[in-house]
Amino acid sequence: MTIIVRDDGFHADDQTDFLDLASDTDPATLDPSLAKNIRIAFPSSADGRGFSLARILRLQGFTGRLRAAGHVLSDQYAMARRCGFDEVEIPDDLAERQPAEQWLFRADWRAHDYQARMRG
């Protein structure tokens, strides 16, 4: 079973119709208008390619639901949201190790944006 993390906490999965992409997908080969929902796999919490892919998809005009799935840690939630992800899908065992409170602590991702603070 999986848990969906959003800015307001943990949720049950409410969507199954996703175009699944690997983190090493070449964005030049994608037409973001072909999918309503895209899920990008994170095979490891140390693999940041999914963040780049999400940002590129948003810059290409993708407006649907964008989900990070797999090994995303609560410490990475703010980065995921800033890159364009709407939500994160995590396995139950990760949710047990990192309960909702740890994710909610990072849910105010706009307030803690270093680059925005530097721009003034």
From TrEMBL:
Protein's recorded name: Uncharacterized protein (DUF934 family)
Originating species: Sagittula marina
